[in-house]
Amino acid sequence: MHPEQIKAAIRMKGMTAAMIAENLEVSQSSVSHVINKRSHSERIEEFIATLIEEPRDELFPRKPSLLRRSA
Question: What is the topology classification, in CATH, of domain 3-59?
């Protein structure tokens, strides 16, 4: 889901990123970074997923890590 869609879904539930931050006792920038997929926080992601009733893995999919091969 695109970050703007996540923000809209949060607003439709009557909340804002600032309210989420206050509820979780984290900074608003931490919530914003998670929404915009610049950082990860299981706690923030889970809160948002539960709030907007969407699977966390669909909102915040993990990219497969690149494995280095031994030479």
Answer: 434 Repressor (Amino-terminal Domain) (1.10.260)
